[in-house]
Design a protein that fits this description.
Nuclear Transport Factor 2, Chain: A
């Protein structure tokens, strides 16, 4: 288990240093990103709550692992961008790898991690709940369901120890697909697919 955790922490650095981001060597006394505006944790009763709660998890990394775990559907798949695949990463991975890797990133500054340490992180998903468009999808394995997709521009900054800053490439975009896992008892949306579309 320890070896797996160490490998996943190493993969975190590989993932965020592939084609979806660029290196920005840290300059002497360069300030760390200012704190993100407070994001309220939502109850996932609306589609956009999934996006909001992803940002919440990243902004509250010490408690964000449980939040992120609660966002990820049991049938979840993450799809790497074509540029990432060309860097030696797999085409996709499932729920457990996603949760383990993200948890490793969140907890990398806890003092107990043996992998690369992320000193600070900032993730911004650029969307407006009132004007964004969700496209309907009939999933192949779930013909009786309707899933919803939205393409979102995003930015991130990861301050890595000892002296690297990783930032998203210009125009980075991802496709988020959500699924209502409780259609009979009121809506409860979860992330079922996350596809990195890369940048310009």
């Amino acid at each position: 288990m320890l070896k797996r955790s160490w490998l996943l922490c190493g993969l975190v650095l590989l993932v965020i240093s592939a084609s979806s981001c660029i290196f920005d060597p840290k300059e002497e006394n360069k300030p760390i990103d200012p704190p993100q505006p407070a994001v309220k944790l939502e109850d996932q009763s609306q589609k956009w709550h999934v996006l909001n709660n992803i940002e919440y998890a990243y902004a509250n990394r010490n408690s964000g692992s449980d939040v992120y775990n609660g966002l990820i559907d049991e049938n979840f798949t993450f799809f790497f961008s074509p540029g990432d695949i060309g860097s030696g990463l797999p085409e996709q991975w499932g729920r457990q790898d996603e949760v383990d890797t993200t948890t490793g990133l969140f907890e990398s500054n806890s003092g107990t991690s043996s992998g690369p340490e992320c000193r600070s992180m900032r993730l911004d998903l650029q969307y407006n709940p009132e004007t964004m468009t969700w496209g309907e999808v009939i999933p192949e394995g779930f013909p009786d369901e309707v899933w919803y997709q939205a393409n979102i521009f995003y930015t991130f900054t990861f301050e890595m120890v000892p002296d690297q800053t990783l930032i998203a490439v210009p125009g980075a975009k991802a496709q988020f697909t959500v699924r209502d896992v409780d259609p009979t008892e009121g809506e409860h949306w979860m992330l079922v697919e996350f596809r990195d579309l890369g940048g310009n």
